[in-house]
């Protein structure tokens, strides 16, 4: 199992060909109180680098980009009723989708250390 | 908090008296009939009048409060314009009259549109104007449609629209609605679009450059001719967002600066009321090369007679009739009253007022673009934010002091933005009292910042939980 | 007449504070070569002179004609209290309620408006108004495309007003969208487009020719195809007719003019849009929501703003900013005054008087009333050109109807006649006899 991050602040956990995607703790903090997570449909094709859903707070909306390509196998439906889970547990219970990964392209993905270093450069 | 009207319903009441049934009653057939009445309740006329009159008292408005909401031009709305729009000869005309055998019986209505369009063409320096767009953003949409139609007719392959990062949100939203991708150019130190980056981003696939001048920072862009020349050299057209036209009436005309299309917000510049959020009106002017793409129907003068031209190249239509006609009547009355001298005076006093407030408040609030402003100036509450007092707190504290706050957190490029637009109709006394309140709040930030977090405390409600509203969506009452 | 309050002394004091000697110095950021010499307008005039000109213009219009025109907007009764309430300056001189604590009046009014529009249309959620009926329909088409994501066809049924169809087509003509326009009276059918490719089907009920239909079964087919169904409705008719909600539509739109707004030569009116809770985040425009303040008291705010242009910029659900709040308020005040029974009675009067007009016109030689169940508007075929008949009746002070050739081809002799509760039996009898005389 490996966890990667993107410069757009998504994380993806990869176990074999199974992936789980969410937004990073940093992204959740930046958005503030999250009011809505738009969850894609099961079976939807995600294309690496393309937006597949969005996360909203009262005063902001942020598109979420697929870190890897694949087909959605499950969605976190609890986010529909309680989007605040993303604020409370962005990188665990606040996961958004799981998918069957269909590509091997890992370009642009950052390790946790690389991502932390990247965050340092932002402020 | 006021009870909702619905809680006051008593079955059997009615606040309206309908004409009598003087023919035999007919029914819809069973399969088409409504299953049960709309559950809206039943009230007497007094129930309704008292309920809504009391609700009206919970509003701040131009007639009751100083309302320096930047970019919205909340000037005084003259009462005579309201009176004109309510004349029976305008108010009771059906819009299909001209095409239903009564063209001769609505000549005055068409003449008014024709004359207002002529007036706006002169003010903006454009070759033609249509009064059809129903709001500023609707005008922007028509403007981008004209540009897209122009490129389509010429066979130009265009994909992008350039906007400065200080632009109104409607600019990129409009261009995107019309199928364009957006290129955003950052603001340079002089207070508008960075020219080097603009040059770099400009390419053959750019359809249009959308500018507001003066922009949302209140800065007049002196390089506009250069921008226009660069854009035109790629056959990109220049769009003028007229939201801030108030500042330059009779001083500068967008058409003379190289702009190809302009929209005018009559609810800002021409003093028609904002109506709690509309109706607005956003007439669009354009240069000759875009006239063939204007939407139908157009009012034309044939000899002494006013007629409708319903032929458009693409049979483009953006609304069913002639625009928000009642708003146009108010704007025309205003235009007549002001005349050339009055409109110039509007611009001068709007700019004088904004600069006066800027100078009075500058010692107390950070001014990121410290230069002579036009109709508005943008402060940042960054100094106050260090003490934990944010633009939002200052806005709410102003409400407690009897003022509608400035626009806050816009433009997005200024952190803790507070955008102040006094407009020309405010007196020195009113602005002085407002400035003193702002200064007092700045002092409170030093002495007792926490007290400002509670504001407002004088209104029917304190701060409202917007997060809850967005999470547990409740947009209608249900029994 | 000027509305700037500045005295010469005050101007001087202000200039001194600023540190310049004259007002023209403040325009120094504008390069001289950009300043205009040309500003060829007459000088300003007084309030009384202005009113004189406006009265003269208004006087050139005949405001007293007996009106049988419809086509989407109608002359209905408006209680005096409607205008009295929307003339409260606290409403009409305020702006969009960005600061909720200083705008609870507007916000609660709009929440009540949304509630009533939901009740009237039988839907679950409403926005706080659109510009007008035609643009609301175009926005509904865009909303159907958003909901259906990857589908890119919009089908416009023959029931839709051809002018409004042009608005929808204009809006969509700049996007990569296929518009299937089923022409009025053509053999083409929506069944030909139930192929998994259509994002939205758009209907009008009553149709622009006045006929009323139950769309329940059609909507079942559309939903089986996972497409979105949209209907444009005439709100007054909903006093009697089965609601869009009961027929299974996903989105209902319409022009709210008939609810308390004067004809005013085409505007300002308001558009409305209602839908199901499932689709609320795809709605364009302002939405008011209920919440609580820090003391737990009920209050109202603009909500779901992350959909909107001022936050999402190019990714917004629409570019709409100002809508038609004051006209929507007129709609709310009207519905409140009418009440549940009043709305039904008004609709019943319209229906009954129209049926009377139909039966009387059918007796006239040279007049054929079109088939089909209608509400208050219907088509008649005349033995002469409709335009000529309209011209003759205009001379008698009657607006007889809208010649159908304004909407469709090959309809020279067809006339669209609307009857509202304001037309008396005598008005109708006069119309009938004058049409008879004109043929």
Overall residue-averaged pLDDT value of chain B: 96
H and E string of chain B:
HHHHEHEHEHEHEEHEEEHEHHEEHHH
Number of domains of chain B: 2
Give the percentage of residues in beta strands of chain B: 5-15%
CATH topology of the largest domain in chain C: the name is: Aspartate Aminotransferase, domain 2
CATH superfamily of the largest domain in chain C, please? Type I PLP-dependent aspartate aminotransferase-like (Major domain)
List how many beta strands of chain B DSSP finds.
Answer: 12
Note the main attributes of this structure.
heterotrimer; B: 479 residues; Aspartate Aminotransferase, domain 2; Aspartate Aminotransferase, domain 1; 7-stranded mixed sheet; 36% helix; C: 439 residues; alpha/beta; 4-stranded antiparallel sheet; 13 helices
Structure description:
- The complex is a heterotrimer of chains A (123), B (479) and C (439).
- With 123 residues, chain A is an alpha+beta fold.
- Chain A has helices at residues 25-31, 78-81, 85-88, 112-122, and strands spanning 2-5, 10-15, 18-23, 34-37, 45-46, 51-57, 61-65, 70-75, 97-101.
- Chain A has one domain (2-122): RNA polymerase II/Efflux pump adaptor protein, barrel-sandwich hybrid domain (OB fold (Dihydrolipoamide Acetyltransferase, E2P), Beta Barrel).
- In chain A, 21% of the residues lie in helices and 37% in strands.
- Chain A has a six-stranded antiparallel sheet with strand order 1-2-3-9-8-5.
- The mean pLDDT of chain A is 93.
- With 479 residues, chain B is an alpha/beta fold.
- Chain B is built from 15 helices and twelve strands.
- The relative contact order of chain B is 0.13.
- Chain C folds into two domains: 66-75 and 342-438, Aspartate Aminotransferase, domain 1 (Alpha-Beta Complex), CATH 3.90.1150; 80-335, Type I PLP-dependent aspartate aminotransferase-like (Major domain) (Aspartate Aminotransferase, domain 2).
- Helix content of chain C is 36%, strand content 15%.
- Chain C has helices at 8-18, 47-59, 80-86, 89-92, 104-121, 133-147, 162-172, 216-224, 244-247, 309-312, 325-362, 386-395, 425-438; strands at residues 66-67, 125-126, 153-156, 178-181, 198-205, 228-233, 251-255, 271-275, 288-292, 298-302, 367-369, 377-382, 398-399, 402-403, 414-418.
- Chains B and C meet through helix 1, helix 2, helix 3, helix 4 and helix 5 of B and helix 1, helix 2, helix 3, helix 4 and helix 5 of C.
């Amino acid at each position: 199992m490996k966890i990667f991050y993107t410069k757009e602040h998504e994380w993806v956990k990869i176990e074999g060909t199974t992936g789980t995607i969410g937004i990073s703790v940093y992204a959740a903090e930046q958005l503030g109180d999250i009011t809505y997570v738009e969850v894609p449909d099961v079976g939807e094709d995600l294309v690496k680098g393309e937006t597949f859903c969005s996360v909203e707070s009262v005063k902001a909306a942020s598109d979420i980009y697929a870190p890897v390509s694949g087909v959605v196998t499950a969605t976190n439906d609890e986010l529909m009723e309680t989007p605040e889970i993303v604020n409370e547990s962005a990188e665990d219970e606040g996961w958004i989708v799981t998918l069957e990964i269909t590509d091997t392209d890992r370009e642009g993905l950052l390790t946790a250390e690389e991502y932390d270093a990247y965050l340092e450069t932002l402020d | 908090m006021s009870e909702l009207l619905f809680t006051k319903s008593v079955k059997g009441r009615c606040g309206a008296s309908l004409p009598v049934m003087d023919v035999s009653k007919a029914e819809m057939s069973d399969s088409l009939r409504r299953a049960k009445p709309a559950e809206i309740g039943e009230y007497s006329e007094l129930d309704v009048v008292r309920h809504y009159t009391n609700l009206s008292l919970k509003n701040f408005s131009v007639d009751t409060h100083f309302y320096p909401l930047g970019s919205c031009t909340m000037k005084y709305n003259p009462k005579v314009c309201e009176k004109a729009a309510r004349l029976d000869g305008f108010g009771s005309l059906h819009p299909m009259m001209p095409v239903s055998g009564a063209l001769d019986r609505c000549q005055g209505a068409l003449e008014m549109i024709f004359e207002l369009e002529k007036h706006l063409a002169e003010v903006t320096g454009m070759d033609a104007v249509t009064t059809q767009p129903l709001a500023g953003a609707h005008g922007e949409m028509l403007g981008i449609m004209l540009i897209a139609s122009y490129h389509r007719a010429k066979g130009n392959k265009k994909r992008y629209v350039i906007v400065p990062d200080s632009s109104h949100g409607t600019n990129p939203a409009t261009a995107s609605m019309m199928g364009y991708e957006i290129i955003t150019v950052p603001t340079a130190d002089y207070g508008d679009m960075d020219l080097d980056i603009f040059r770099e981003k400009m390419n053959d696939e750019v359809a249009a450059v959308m500018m507001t001048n003066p922009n949302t920072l209140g800065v007049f862009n002196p390089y506009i001719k250069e921008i226009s020349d660069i854009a035109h050299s790629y056959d990109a057209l220049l769009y003028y967002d007229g939201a801030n036209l108030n500042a330059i009436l009779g001083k500068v005309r967008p058409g003379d600066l190289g702009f190809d299309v302009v929209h005018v917000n009559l609810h800002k510049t021409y003093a028609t009321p904002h109506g709690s959020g509309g109706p607005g009106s956003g007439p669009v002017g354009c240069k000759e090369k875009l006239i063939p793409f204007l939407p139908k129907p157009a009012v034309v003068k044939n000899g002494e007679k006013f007629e409708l031209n319903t032929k458009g190249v693409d049979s483009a239509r953006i609304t069913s009739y002639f625009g928000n006609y009642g708003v146009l009547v108010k704007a025309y009355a205003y235009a007549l009253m002001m005349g050339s001298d009055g409109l110039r005076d509007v611009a001068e006093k709007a700019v004088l007022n904004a600069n006066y407030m800027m100078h009075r408040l500058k010692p107390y609030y950070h001014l990121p673009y410290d230069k002579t402003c036009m109709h508005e100036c943008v402060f940042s509450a960054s100094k106050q934010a260090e003490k934990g007092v944010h633009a939002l707190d200052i806005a709410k504290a102003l409400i407690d002091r009897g003022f509608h706050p400035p626009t806050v957190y816009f433009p997005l490029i200024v952190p803790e933005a507070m955008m102040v637009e006094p407009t020309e109709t405010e007196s020195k006394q009113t602005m002085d009292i407002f400035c003193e309140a702002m200064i007092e709040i700045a002092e409170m930030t030093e002495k007792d910042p926490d007290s400002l977090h509670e504001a407002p405390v004088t209104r029917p409600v304190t701060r409202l939980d917007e997060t809850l509203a967005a999470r547990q969506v409740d947009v209608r009452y249900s029994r | 007449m000027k509305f700037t309050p500045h005295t010469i002394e005050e101007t001087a004091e202000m200039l001194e504070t600023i540190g310049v000697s004259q007002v023209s110095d403040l325009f120094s950021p504008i390069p001289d070569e950009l300043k205009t010499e040309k500003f060829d307008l007459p000088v300003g005039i007084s309030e009384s002179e202005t009113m004189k000109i406006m009265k003269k213009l208004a006087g050139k219009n005949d405001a007293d004609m007996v009106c049988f025109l419809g086509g989407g907007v109608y002359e209905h009764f408006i209680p005096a209290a409607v205008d009295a309430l929307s003339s409260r300056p606290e409403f009409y001189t305020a702006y969009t309620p960005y600061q909720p604590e200083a705008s609870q009046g507007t916000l609660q009014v709009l929440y009540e408006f949304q509630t009533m529009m939901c009740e009237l249309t039988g839907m679950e959620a409403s926005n706080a108004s659109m510009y007008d009926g035609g643009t609301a329909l175009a926005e509904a088409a865009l909303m159907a495309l958003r909901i259906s994501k990857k589908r890119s066809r919009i089908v416009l049924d023959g029931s839709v007003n051809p002018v409004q169809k042009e608005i929808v087509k204009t809006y969509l003509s700049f996007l990569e969208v296929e518009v299937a326009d089923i022409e009025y009276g053509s053999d083409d059918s929506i069944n030909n487009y139930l192929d998994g490719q259509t994002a939205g089907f758009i209907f009008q009920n009553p149709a622009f020719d006045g006929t009323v239909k139950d769309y329940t079964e059609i909507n079942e087919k559309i939903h089986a195809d996972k497409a979105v169904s949209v209907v444009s409705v005439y709100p007054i008719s909903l006093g009697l007719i089965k609601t869009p909600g009961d027929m299974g539509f996903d989105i209902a739109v319409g022009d709210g003019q008939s609810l308390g707004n004067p004809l005013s030569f085409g505007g300002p009116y308001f558009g409305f849009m209602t839908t199901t809770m499932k689709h609320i985040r795809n709605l364009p425009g302002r939405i008011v929501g209920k919440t609580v303040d820090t003391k737990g008291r009920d209050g109202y705010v603009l909500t779901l703003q992350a959909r909107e242009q001022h936050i999402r910029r190019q990714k917004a659900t629409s570019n709409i900013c100002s809508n038609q709040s004051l006209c929507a308020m007129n709609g709310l005040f009207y519905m409140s005054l009418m009440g549940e029974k009043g709305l039904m009675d008004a609709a019943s009067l319209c229906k009954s008087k129209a049926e009377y007009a139909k039966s009387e016109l059918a007796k006239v030689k040279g007049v054929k009333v079109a088939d089909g169940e209608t509400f208050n508007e219907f088509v008649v075929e005349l033995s002469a050109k409709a335009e000529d008949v309209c011209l003759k009746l205009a001379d008698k002070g009657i607006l007889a109807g809208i010649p159908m050739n304004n909407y469709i081809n090959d309809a020279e002799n067809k006339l669209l006649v609307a009857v509202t509760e304001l037309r008396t039996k005598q008005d109708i009898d006069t119309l009938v006899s004058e049409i008879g005389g004109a043929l």
